[in-house]
Amino acid sequence: MKKSFLFAIIISSLLIFINNSGVASTENRLSKKVFVPSQARLKSSMPTNMMVSGTLHFQLKNEPELDVLLKEQQDSNSANYRKWLTPTEFGEKFGVSEATYQKTINYLKESGITLTQTWSNRLRLDFQAPVETVQKAFKIEMHLFELEGKTYYGHLEKALLPTNLIPEIADLRLNNFLFTQPTLKPESLIMPAFSDQSGRISIGPQDIHVAYNFKPLFSSGIEGNGQSIGIIARSDFNMSDVDLFRNLFKLPTTTITKIPAGGEIIDRGGIETLEVLLDTQLSGAAAPKADIKVVIADRNNDIDQSLAFFLNNLPNTKVLSISFGACEKFLFPQFEALFNNLYKQAAAQGQSILVSSGDQGVNDCGDGQSLQVNALAASPFVTAVGGTSLRVNFDSNGNATDYLGEQGWIGSGGGVSNFFPITDYQSSAGIFLQGRTVPDVALLADPSQPGFFVVRDGFTTVTGGTSASTPVWAGIFALTNQFSESKGLGNANPRIYNLGQQQQMSASPLRGFFNDITSGNNNGGGLIGYMAQPGYDLCTGWGTPNTDRFVRSFISAPNRQTGLFLLFPNGSEILGKNETIPIRWQLSDDLVNRAGTQDILLSTDEGKTFNIIASNLPPTIRSFDYVANIVTTTARFRIQVRTLANNVIDTSDANVNIGTSLRIDFARYAILNNRLEVLGEALSDKAKLFVNNVRIDRQGKKLSTGELVFKGKEKKLKLQKGENFIVLEVDGVRSAPYKLFL
Question: Hey, what domains does the chain have and what are their CATH numbers?
Answer without folding.
Answer: 3-60+95-173 (no CATH), 181-554 (3.40.50.200), 564-656 (2.60.40.10), 664-741 (2.60.40)
